[in-house]
Give the backbone structure.
Amino acid sequence: MAPVGSVLVGEATYRATRGLFDYQPLPPVRVKGKAEPLPVWVAASARGRLGVAVDQGPATPFLGREAELGQLQRSYATARDEGSVRLVTVSGEPGVGKSRLVRELRAFVDAQPELIAWREGHCLPYGEGISFWALGEVLKAQAGILEFDDPATVAAKLADMVAAVVEGAGRAPVARDPPGAAARPGQRHGGQDGHAGAGGDLHRLAPLP
């Protein structure tokens, strides 16, 4: 029933995931054991493709975390005004509101007059070779890398992304190495060597009384 290389879903799955994926309706299909044809949809694309989770919107008022949100807002303002890197760690037991706090910060950033590129990466709780998974998601989102891009396309998109950042900061253009080229000992790809300083803040959330 489903076109080759596609995913076909029924009504229950469609209703549960239509906020996360764009679907296209197909003609109803007849299924063994059902008297009437069933409505079906084919998945067209993921709404979070560029690395930003789809915001379903808060279901409850934001209460009790104004102080922590204020700290995050000040860290953001420092990074914006000083052009510096800020690292903030929010920790706490499951269910204390870490994700909601980040959502509120994102809403605050979205409301600012300046245009800010918001990127999200997720750390997987299982698997191998996932140490830099979250960073990889952020970089792929910023470079516009898609899952079906071949290595040459990925290399070109990464080079364009780095060049835009470096040239936008008024630095020398980044030299582009061909895909698969190996760096000589003591040399980094791109011919640039640098570092970014980061101020670190640790916020631990305790359960609300």
About this structure: Residues 66-205 form one domain. Residues 178-199 have pLDDT under 50 and may be disordered. Residues 81 and 177 are 34 Å apart (CA to CA). The chain has two domains: 8-46, 66-205.
